Amino acid sequence: MPDNTSRTRGTAAKNSFPSSGAGSIPPTAAPPGARVLLATLGIHGVGRLRRQRGTRGATGALADLLWNTACEADYLHAQLYSHAADVRDWLDTLLATPGTTFTPTDGDVTHFGHVSDLHAARLVQQMSQLSLVMKSYQAADSTRRA
Fold it and tell me: Which burial class, exposed, middle or buried, applies to 78 when counting CB atoms under 10 A from its CB (0-12, 13-18, 19+)?
C-alpha cells in the first residue's frame, strides 16, 4: 500500500489501517479514526473502502479523503496522548526532586494546559470533519450501488 501523507500535518499512514503515528497508545485502545471506520462501515466496508481508494472518479477521491481524515484523527489522538504522558512525566520528576519544599509551577502548568487545550480542540475538529466526510462517503456509496 502506498505511504499516504496527510495534507494538514505531514503525517503518514504507516500500515494498512489508520493508526497513530506518535506517542504510545495502549494496545487495547483502538485510535478514534479506526474505531469510527469499523463501527460505521464494518470490516467488509473498510475492505471496500480500501479497494475504492485506488479507483478513479469521485468515489475513489472521497474514499481516499475519508481514509486520510481517519488517519489524521488517529495521529492527533496520539499527539494528545503523548503530550499528556510528557506532562505527567514532567510533574512526576518535578515533585520527586529531593530537598524541594516549594516549586513554582504556575507558568509551566499554564503552558501545558494551553497546549493540551489546543491538541484537544484540534482532535475534536478533526473528528467532526471525519463525521461529515463519512456521511458524504456513505451517501455517494449508496447511490453508486443503487
Answer: buried
Q: What is the pLDDT at residue 100?
A: 64
Considering Cα of 51, then 52, then 53, then 56, what sign does the dihedral take?
positive
Ramachandran quadrant class, 14 (left: phi over 0; alpha: psi -120 to 50; beta: rest): alpha
Question: How far apart, in whole angstroms, are the C-alpha atoms of residue 145 and residue 52?
Answer: 13
Torsion 35-41-45-49 (CA) sign? negative
Among the listed residues 30, 132, 17, the one whose alpha carbon sits nearest the alpha carbon of residue 81: 30
Radius of gyration of the chain (CA): 19
pLDDT tens sequence across 103-130: 665 566 666 778 888 889 999 999 999 9
